[in-house]
């Protein structure tokens, strides 16, 4: 009986987060030309991209090839110089609650404890106290941070901070998660673990995810698709569909083979061949 009640409560909390799944995204001829002090910079040549609801797309490339610019435009924080973006067919004209952008730096509030950090957006959205605490706890459990509700940011490791940031983003129930190198500052072991956790979360929530990374194996481990970018000017040079079964292991032979193939394309696009690099 008690068990049934628990399952029901879990279901009630989850159903408050409807729609749980992701939505589609259409990027149509989006380009960006910045006018800096040193002149114009073509950050991005026109990009066309169709992302299906619940798809996991990785944007892979070296520094300065326009990955963050594209994410900012999709987030509605930057205007494109040409083209447009639609989410579920609706023109994006600014930031919206259907999209959340996550960065390498978790950007948490140091004066709030973990629970209040996760509750923050819900409070802004006017969710009543009891309900927002319930929801924040639910998402903290999802990122394996049960028991750390009262901790402050300075008491957490880098990986834990990033988990809090993910819980905070999920609590807002976005349909699209825009992740800009979220694991870039973490040590290799923590990074592997968070990759696996993110894949689990994605499998259970079916959000649409755009994930920027410099790391080829990370991209192959996570993506349904990997888009390879090249710099000067920023552009997409190739697209790979990754059909390896999930969950994926970084040590899997086929994954490593696919990563080598993509790495070769990346190096060619950059016009250089360096040996022994992993990303
Ligand atoms: N606000 C800006 N004003 C002028 N130039 C900019 C601005 N933002 C980005 N750029 C330039 O646009 C280009 C693309 O930058 P962007 O940050 O999108 O690349 P990126 O692939 O995300 O790089 P990184 O991986 O280092 O974040 C770079 O040459 C960058 O210097």
Q: Please identify which CATH superfamily of the largest domain we are dealing with.
A: P-loop containing nucleotide triphosphate hydrolases
- How much β-strand is present in the residues? 15-25%
Q: Which value, in Å, is the CA radius of gyration?
A: 19 Å
Order of helices and strands: HEEEHEEEHHHEHEHEEH
Structural class: alpha/beta
* CATH class placement of the largest domain: Alpha Beta
Overall mean pLDDT: 88
Low-confidence runs of at least 5 consecutive residues: 1-15, 273-279
Query: Number of DSSP helices?
Result: 8
Keywords: ATP-binding, Nucleotide-binding, Transport
Organism: Thermosporothrix hazakensis
InterPro entries: AAA+_ATPase (IPR003593), ABC_transporter-like_ATP-bd (IPR003439), ABC_transporter-like_CS (IPR017871), ABC_transporter_ATP-bind (IPR050166), P-loop_NTPase (IPR027417)
Protein name: NitT/TauT family transport system ATP-binding protein
Could you please describe the fold and organization of this structure?
With 279 residues, this protein is of the alpha/beta class. The chain folds into 2 domains: 34-98 and 176-279, Rossmann fold (3-Layer(aba) Sandwich); 108-173, no CATH class. It is built from 8 helices and 10 strands. Strands 6-7-8-3-9-10 form a 6-stranded mixed beta sheet, sandwiched between helices. The chain has a 4-stranded antiparallel beta sheet with strand order 2-1-4-5, covered by helices on one side. A hairpin with a 2-residue loop joins β1 (25-36) and β2. The radius of gyration is 19 Å and the shape is globular. Mean pLDDT is 88; it is low at 1-15 and 273-279. InterPro entries: AAA+_ATPase, ABC_transporter-like_ATP-bd, ABC_transporter-like_CS, ABC_transporter_ATP-bind, P-loop_NTPase.
């Amino acid at each position: 009986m008690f068990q049934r009640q628990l399952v029901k409560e879990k279901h009630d909390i989850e159903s408050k987060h409807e729609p749980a799944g992701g939505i589609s995204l259409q990027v149509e001829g989006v380009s960006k030309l910045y006018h800096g002090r040193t002149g114009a910079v073509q950050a991005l040549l026109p990009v066309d991209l169709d992302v299906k609801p619940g798809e996991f797309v990785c944007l892979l490339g070296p520094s300065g090839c326009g990955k963050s610019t594209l994410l900012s435009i999709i987030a509605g924080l930057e205007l494109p110089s040409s083209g447009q973006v639609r989410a579920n067919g609706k023109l994006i004209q600014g930031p919206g609650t259907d999209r959340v952008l996550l960065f390498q730096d978790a950007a948490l509030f140091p004066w709030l404890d973990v629970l209040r950090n996760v509750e923050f957006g819900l409070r802004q959205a006017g969710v009543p106290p009891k309900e927002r605490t319930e929801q924040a706890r639910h998402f903290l459990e999802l990122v394996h941070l049960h028991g750390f509700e009262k901790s402050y940011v300075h008491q957490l490791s880098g990986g834990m901070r990033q988990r809090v940031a993910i819980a905070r983003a999920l609590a807002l129930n976005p349909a699209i998660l825009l992740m800009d190198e979220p694991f870039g500052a973490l040590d290799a072991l923590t990074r592997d673990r968070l990759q696996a956790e993110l894949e689990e979360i994605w499998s259970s929530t079916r959000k649409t995810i755009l994930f920027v990374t410099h790391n080829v194996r990370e991209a192959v481990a996570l993506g349904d698709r990997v888009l390879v970018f090249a710099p000067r000017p920023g552009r997409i040079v190739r697209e790979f569909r990754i059909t390896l079964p999930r969950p994926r292991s970084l040590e899997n032979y086929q994954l490593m083979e696919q990563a080598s193939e993509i790495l070769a394309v990346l190096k060619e696009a950059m016009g250089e061949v360096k040996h022994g690099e992993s990303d």
